[in-house]
């Protein structure tokens, strides 16, 4: 089986690049807000769509999770015993 890449119309390539850029940027910002490795996740989500986006959403939402600090309401990780922003102990 031989797939000729030049047979794919240019507009389809442009759409793909736009979708991947938006996805990468969104993940970069989201990961940064959550204190995750934003460069790693941003680049990871530039590689393909939508598989890598689902992987990121599962890891960031279900595995790491996030809660609000009881003192300053900043988004912190569930496993944090102390808020990294204000230092308040989480119960
Ligand atoms: Zn706090």
General description of the model:
This protein is mainly α. The protein has helices spanning 10-33, 38-47, 51-64, and strands at 67-68, 75-76. β1 and β2 (75-76) form a beta hairpin. It starts with 9 loop residues before the first helix and ends in a 15-residue tail after the last strand. It binds zinc ion.
**Secondary-structure element pattern, one letter each:** HHHEE
- Number of alpha- plus pi-helical segments: 3
The percent range for helix content is 40-55%
Biggest β-sheet description: 2 strands, antiparallel
User: Which consecutive residue ranges, at least 5 long each, have pLDDT under 50?
Assistant: none
Shape: elongated
SSE-based structural type: mainly alpha
Q: Mean pLDDT across all residues, rounded? A: 90
- Termini separation comes to 59 Å
Strand percentage: under 5%
Order of strands, widest sheet:
1-2
Distinct small-molecule ligands in the complex: zinc ion
- Assembly type of the shown chains? single chain
The beta-strand count equals 2
CA-atom Rg in angstroms? 18 Å
